[in-house]
Amino acid sequence: MNEAALLELLSGRRRGVGARVLCAVLTIASWGYSAVMRLRNFAYNRKWLAVHDVPIPVISLGNITTGGTGKTPMAAWLANWLLSHGFRPGLLSRGYRSLEDSTSVTSSPTADQPNGNDEKRVLDRLCLGVPHLQQRDRVASARRLCQDFDCNVLILDDGFQHRRLQRNLDLVLIDALQPWGFGHILPRGLLRESMSGLKRADLIIITRANQCSQSARDILRSELVKYRDSAACVEVAFVPTQLVSLDGGSHPVTLAKDKSSLSFCGIGNPEGFRQTLATIGATGPLRVYSDHYHYLPKDLHELAQQANEGHFPFVLTTLKDMVKIPAESWTGPPLYAVEIGIQFLEGEDLLKQKLMEILKP
Q: Mean per-residue pLDDT for 74-103?
């Protein structure tokens, strides 16, 4: 079953006897997964499992669901904010679906890194000069960033469930478009653990808050009160800032306004990209691939052929997708990535206050 079909099943949009049987099987499997996660969290809470310290502050960015909540643009904003305040940040992540574990410090605006996953290549482009280590053992990565790169603050990407590394601030991102993963724990839904785990978070950041109604955000906040006894949170929007071409050139987003173009993406939340395209006035078909998809030559040929035959003036994608496409492999019309920035709608001062509390000497 491909990713789109699975989401149809988990969301309840797929009907029929077969769908009910599959959901029942997944529900039984989710009981086992949930039991393991509860036991694991209990062991960490009781200090039966070791938690490792490093001598500098650690800021964790994480989710309670799988899929795209916008950690990459949030990590970029955080790293650049730290740089602007005189800190030396380092990034560490697992490197899900990377070609191989890698280490790099970029000094140029190109993102054609041969190693690392798409998220790392995007962050290399958006956070110039910030070291980023990707490997399974994030405790070892953290120590290396301290010792070899002289970092004085670390950003742990996708770290909420990675409890081996002690953190000073736990930031949990919740996507306003799909906040609770269809209300079930993996594999029946997209929740990584019970929502009671939100009590561990120091601050909740609601992403894509501009893409849902105020009433929907009020309902989301009321859910937070159930599990955290507080509705205090940060609300952010992802705002298109520019179009980036394959050669690294920058173009205004108005270039896409009222024009029909072919678009494609392989990200955790394709609906978010669809709404981003609507924001800049782009129309036309959107082809969706699985999250972290590695594009093969035949995929690029099919996309270029569709764009050429459709006489589309250009093709749009995400920065995460573009960094995996060699310029020489693209034979279609001009290809642009929609670069995204953070806009705070509410709670910016609260986030900065939390950051300064852990960064004081």
A: 83
The 10 Å Cβ neighbour count of residue 115 is 15
Q: How far is CA 265 from CA 19, 115, 124, 144, 293, in A?
A: 27, 20, 20, 34, 9
Residue type (1 letter), 274: R
Phi and psi, residue 288, nearest 5° = -110, 130
Q: Are 145 and 81 in contact (CB under 8 A)?
A: no
Spatial neighbors of 334 by CB under 8 A, at least 6 apart, are 245, 313, 314, 315
pLDDT in tens, 17-40: 999 999 999 999 999 999 999 999
Is the pLDDT assigned to residue 219 strictly greater than 50?
Answer: yes
Report the pLDDT value the prediction gives residue 109, as an integer from 0 to 100: 32
CA 309/CA 312 separation, integer angstroms: 8
Transcribe 296-336 into DSSP letters. -HHHHHHHHHHHHHTT-S-EEEEHHHHTTS-GGG--SS-EE
pTM score: 0.90
Q: Give residue-wise pLDDT tens across range 302-318.
A: 999 999 999 999 999 99
Angle between helices 3-11 and 17-45 in degrees, nearest 10: 90
Lowest model confidence (mean pLDDT) among 108-117, 127-136, 257-266, 289-298: 108-117
- Residue 21's alpha-carbon distances to 14, 28, 125, in angstroms, are 12, 11, 45
Long-range contacts of range 21-26, CB-CB < 8 Å, 24 or more positions apart? 23/188, 26/184, 26/187, 26/188
